[in-house]
Amino acid sequence: MGGLIFLAAALGAACLTLMILRLREHRRIRQLTQQAEDFLNHSGKPMDVALGEDDIAMLQNALCELQDRLIRARELQKEECSRTSSLTADISHQLKTPLTTLRVYTELDAAPHMEASLAQISRMENLIQGLLRLERLCADGYSFTFREQDMGELIAEQWSFLAPAFPGRNLELSGQAVIRCDGKWMGEAFLNLLKNACEHTAPEGTVWVSLEKTEAAFFCALEDDGGGVPEKDLPHLFERFYRAEHQSTQGAGIGLSIVREILRRHHGTIAASNTGKGLRMEITLPILEAARPL
User: Fold this and answer.
1) Which residues pair with residue 182 across a beta bridge?
2) What is the rounded distance in angstroms from the CA atom of residue 292 to the CA atom of residue 267?
3) Do residues 262 and 185 touch, judged by C-beta distance below 8 A?
């Protein structure tokens, strides 16, 4: 009888020890998971190397190696972006001086095609400026300041700047949303989107913008009645210098690329699709309590 009691006690102690070990393992795994998530979200430091030899220690050391590789990859990407941004800035600077001189000589000569020549010079200047801004955005060369912003007010303000250049176009804005964003850069993004819509609609055309905010995300749809674009052009609209075949405007093909980069800095996305009336742009931004670097 005494042997059975001893055996039962031993089994109970073994089970209790096993449960304690499993709880410790689960706790360590949860800690590793949280550390990895914090590191990926830029809110925590890399985890330390484990000195043990058990399976969880091996897992931790494997995660440490992945983190080291990711840190190095980020550093290399930042260095490459910096070199590209510097090269673009140097080229832009070198081009500005001869363009300015060319503009002066063109105005002085007053040739029969002076207006056309000046228009092409202005286009080249705008292209250089836009390309420089795009490259600096891609290289995270601008600081973003996130504050509460009424998106309806922001879009209406951008439309007021744009409307005189496109008389007859109408804006129909519906919905409300207040989100954390950089108002200056988000304003530039919507200015480019509204301008793109106006350029593809006829006089007396309409641009519709709808806003919606949930607990998790902000949604915005911008649609025009310009007939849309060929389906083969849709995947390329946000590529730099890309212009659809039917496009008759003299744009440089950079505006939508800048929009995508601005939204990327807000952890957001944009997609284009055709509707029965025209082109539809759909924006999705996560709701962030505070600004997080990429």
Assistant:
1) none
2) 9
3) yes
